[in-house]
Amino acid sequence: MVNSHKSTIYDLAALARTSASTVSASLNGTWQQRRISEETAKRVQQLAQDKGYALNRQASGLRRNRSGLIGMMIPTHEDRFFGVLSQAFERMARERGLHPMVVSTLRDPAIEVRTVQTLISYQVEHLIVTGATHPDGVSALCMRHRVRHVNVDLPGKKAPSITSDNRWGAAELTRLLIARSAEPAERARNRLYFLGGIRGEFATEQRVLGFSEVARRRLGPVQEQQLIRCGYDVNQAEVAMARLYQDLGGLPRGLLLASGVCLEGALRFLRTLPMDEVLACTFGSYDWDPFAAGLRFPVHMVRQNVEGLMSEAYKVIDGEGSQAGHVVQVRPVLIASP
């Protein structure tokens, strides 16, 4: 006969020869504040794991008026940048004794709102809002329920925001593209093009500004058709790349891709071309991908400072951050391909 009895906090206390409150503190991450020894906390945690005990955090949060939960909203799991960002988020949460939850909202404002409502129902204490399409709407919900929160990647007016210095990064990448490229025989193709991103989105428009300022000074006026804001979608980037090639009758002097996802879409089309054509164009990606180093042609990249972004975000969570509406910019790193 299978024993269906589930271990309780009192069972664990008896096995550990300690009190139920000590077991609770050892499992919910508050044992240090309670001045419980690390040896005791680890012994309790190991017993809980051996007995298959899982702390009911929602009930625990209701009893203590806190849950120890911290949430992070990201627009997509597909983009490497957000994947690396969420890993840093989880690590820094656990360093603080918090329990992280990561949810993708698919760049959909309706899903963003429902996600926040769900997290609040689970008594999430803090929220890091990353790449939200409507950050102020998210802030309104968080403020109503007194959830400390911070925007990352895309700023808002109702909470502190941490972003990359997108304008600087795009400008530096554009300078590199011009320096590493050669003027094509066809003067009509002696231009740089920007491909990807969303019209009106903060990160996109800041990157467009940095790109346009440098391109204009070095190569002349930047035309609107040089700014191809086709979103952050692999298929759309592939279609936009094919259309650009058709319109120009070949590749331009250089191409700055707005993200790693846009780079992937462009590569789907580029692999259909002869390599000598591809080598005649110089490529840059505003986001770092280690696999790009294995390509048969160079791709220069901007690597966003994930550690810096998350460290600044956690200053807000720790109560050390700036006021609502203030934006902290973290400078990225330019990575030139050999």
TrEMBL record:
<keyword id="KW-0805">Transcription regulation</keyword>
<feature type="domain" description="HTH lacI-type">
    <location>
        <begin position="7"/>
        <end position="64"/>
    </location>
</feature>
<keyword id="KW-0804">Transcription</keyword>
<keyword id="KW-0238">DNA-binding</keyword>
<keyword id="KW-0678">Repressor</keyword>
<dbReference type="InterPro" id="IPR010982">
    <property type="entry name" value="Lambda_DNA-bd_dom_sf"/>
</dbReference>
<dbReference type="InterPro" id="IPR028082">
    <property type="entry name" value="Peripla_BP_I"/>
</dbReference>
<dbReference type="GO" id="GO:0003677">
    <property type="term" value="F:DNA binding"/>
</dbReference>
<dbReference type="Pfam" id="PF00356">
    <property type="entry name" value="LacI"/>
</dbReference>
<dbReference type="InterPro" id="IPR000843">
    <property type="entry name" value="HTH_LacI"/>
</dbReference>
<protein>
    <submittedName>
        <fullName>LacI family DNA-binding transcriptional regulator</fullName>
    </submittedName>
</protein>
